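Format notes (please read before filing issues)

Several people have asked whether sequences and structure tokens are stored in separate files. They are not. Every record keeps both together, in the order shown below: the sequence lines, then the token lines. Line labels are part of the format and must not be stripped during preprocessing.
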Amino acid sequence: CPSASWCPKVWPCDINATAPDLVVPVVEVLRQPSPGRRVTSTLPGWNRGVHHVTYLPRDWSPSRTWPVLFDLAGNGPFQDEIGDKCDGTVEGQSFGYGVSGGEGFIWVAAPYLTTNRTANQHQWWGTAPGFDPHPTLQYHSELVQWLIANYNADPSRVVLTGFSRGALAVSYLGLHNDAIARLWAAFVSYGHFDGRPGDQWVPYPCLLYTSDAADEEDSVDLGGRPPIKKKNKQNIIAKQLLTQRNCHSIH
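Then the structure lines:
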């Protein structure tokens, strides 16, 4: 355990014993987004069982453009030995709010979709065994355009964020093809990134990030720009930055 003053004497600890410094706003149903409010919405033309959660920052106004935190949740239901929980829903996602503190960014918790496009998916994306990502990719693409058209989102400053499953989705969905990859200005992911080839529970192949990608179904051309990754291992933050351009395990 690190030697910082906050580090508990007994590890692992119960994270619920530490008071949060941010309180995520409650989700309101069937309201239009407004500054400081977090509301559920469904894009026009989609089944009402599919929905996302939009938060406009407290300082939002229509007089300027705004950067976006496009946030992807982890798998649910999940709880670990230190009290960390994830229910896999857009309502339960909080990572983007932690990044922004509720100001300066539009924050949207984006869903993963079932293969039949009728509901949000709480584990992985698409329906087993096929795990078809294309309904999710279509919704994400339309959602970015909806934010631009309705809430002055800046198309040049859309940041893709994710936790756990969402961190894996940042790379697998966010770089699934060149069209979707062009939407993002940057990635912020925590708890996984590439996935591990051969794991039975991973419903996708590991992506390869190379500067000479030939097949966009398996890899995406990053123009020679290596991703910078912060390594997380056994609940301890390791101060290591990795710049490998090949697929690898971060665990």
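For reference, the curators noted about this record: Confidence is low (pLDDT under 50) at residues 197-202, 204-219, 230-251. The chain has four helices and 13 strands.
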